[in-house]
Amino acid sequence: MSAAVVFTDLDGTLLDAATYSWKEAAPALELLEARGIPLVLVTSKTRAEVEVLRGALGNRHPFVVENGGAAFIPKGYFPFSLSVAKARDGYLALEWGASYEELTAALKDASRESGCRVLGFSDMTTPEVAEACSFDPGLAALAKAREYDEPFLVLDAVRESRLLAAIEARGYRWTRGGRFHHICGDNDKAGAVAALRALFEQALGPMRSIGLGDAPNDAEFLAAVELPVLIPSAHLNELQRRIPHGMIPRREGPAGWNEAILGLLAA
Length: 267
Description:
Blueprint: E1 4-8, H1 26-35, E2 39-42, H2 47-57, E3 63-65, E4 70-74, E5 86-88, E6 91-95, H3 100-114, E7 118-120, H4 126-133, H5 137-143, E8 149-154, H6 160-169, E9 173-176, E10 181-184, H7 189-204, E11 208-213, H8 219-224, E12 227-230, H9 236-242, H10 253-266
Parallel strand pairs: 1-2, 1-11, 2-3, 11-12
Antiparallel strand pairs: 3-4, 4-6, 5-6, 7-8, 8-10, 9-10
Helix pairs in contact: 1-10, 3-6, 4-5
């Protein structure tokens, strides 16, 4: 394969949905590193969560957080200036998301209007987030350090459609991840991926884009890359309807991720 960049979701994709391990993807991760192919993490997780994971993976590339709320680019990563980016903690940040305070207020308003009860991260204690997400307390604290996106559980399925309509009526977006719904501003993973892809091509020239994901909130960015990979999950039929040309590995999670990347790089 010619020059490439890989954009990947995390939970249920590169990371096992239950254990959050990436060990089964190790051969493909090593091959990407050996070939100098950038691996961009694209997730609903917070910057604090991703920084821990990047350290464990040895990942030095840009990353997208909170469903496209922002992309963080290590300073000096691209050989040109980014006038629209903000300097933050050693990164250049491209921000598209609404503030967390604005989002939590909008969700409460939409819940009251629709009569649909919700439970957002801002309403939950760190131990409650840990239990809901099967995290240890340290990871749960990182997951609550939100900036651009509020995950929430719908507690009244009968009124769910009213809630989502009320969110949209306020000018906000919603999406579904593996476990939670999310409310966000005028941003999504696809927009962030498109912006980063343009920067990679400006720096390195034309390249193939590979995308991997398993959940509905991955569909838009998967549709925007040249080589989409649909990791098997409970959402596979929905993803297939939206991305009929997507490659589907045989296995779930990091094992399927490994299979797909090794296969694509051998092509």
